[in-house]
Design a protein that fits this description.
The protein is built from ten helices and 13 strands. The protein is α/β, with parallel strands linked by helices. Bound molecules: glutamic acid. The site of glutamic acid has 12 residues, from helix 6 and strand 11.
Amino acid sequence: MRPPATALRRRAAALALTGLVALLAGACGKEGSPPVKGPKPGALPVYQVATDVQLPDSATWRRARSRGHLVVGAKEDQPYMGEKDPATGTYSGFDIEIARMMAASLGFDPKTVAFRTIASANRETALQNGQIDYYVGTYTINALRKKQVGFAGPYYVAGQSLLIRADEKGIDGPQDLAGKRVCSAAGSTPLQRIQREYPKAHAVAYDTYSICVDNLLSLQVDAVTTDDTILMGYAAKAPKELKVVGKPFSTEPYGIGVPRGDNALRFALDDAVATHEKNGDWTKAYDATLGLSGVPAPRPPAIDRYPAS
Ligand code: GLU
C-alpha cells in the first residue's frame, strides 16, 4: 500500500491541476465566444483623448511625450483587476481601465500604453528608477510608501480578506489563523498586517498571489490573504475549489503610483480621476470589470490631493 503522504501529494497535485485548468478556462473561453467571466470588450468605455495637454513641469510626462507613448506598471495575474491574456499579451481589468483613462487625460491614445508587469515588492524601485511612468495595480496608499513614491487618488477602496479551499472548515476570519499557513505577496500590506497583528499565523510569502493560489490548491498553505478585489477574482475563476470568507479586516485605498517629487504629474492624475468619475467612465469601467464579481459599483472615494512633496 502507498504511504498516506504520497496519496495526499497525489490528491494535492490533481487538485492543483483542476484549479489551474479552471483558471485557464476562465481566461481563454472558446474560440469566437467571449470569456465566461472577464470584461466584455463592447462594454468598455472609449476614453476621449485630451488634445491640448501641456505638462512642462512633469519630467515623467516630457519623457513619455518624446518617447511617443506611456509605459505603465501593472499586475498580470489578478482577474477583474489586472490580467494579461497569455495568447495575445493584452491586459484587462479595472486597474488597466484606470491606467487607460489616465493616459487619455494626459494626451496619449490609450491603445498605445505599454504595460509592464511589476510585482508588489518591486513597485517603489520601478518608479524610482524610471522603468515606468506610473503604476496602477491594487497599490495601497500609505505613509511609509509616500516617503518613496507619490500617489494620485485614491480611485477605489478595497479591504483585506481571506481565500480558502471550498471544503475547508474552521477558518472564518483572521482570528482562526493560529498555527495555519497563510500565503501573501512579498512587499504587500496584507502580509505585513498578518505578521504584525496575527503573529500566531505562519506567514508564507511569494512574489505573486497566483503562486499563493497554486499553493492553496495543492494543500501547501491553508489560506491566501490579500485584498478582497483580488481574492474575489480567483474565487470566481475556480468556484468549486475556492471561496472568500469573513468580512474585510483592513482599509486599502488604491492610488496611482508616480515618481516621488513629480507633483505636476500627480496633480494632473488627481484631476483626471475626478474628471472620469464625473463623466461616467469610472462606473462604466467598473461595471465591465470588477463589477462582474457581482458587487455593484460603490461611490468612488474622495481624492486626497495632498500638498507638493
Ligand atoms: N493593496 C495591497 C498592497 O498594496 C495588496 C495588493 C498588492 O500587493 O498589490 O500591498
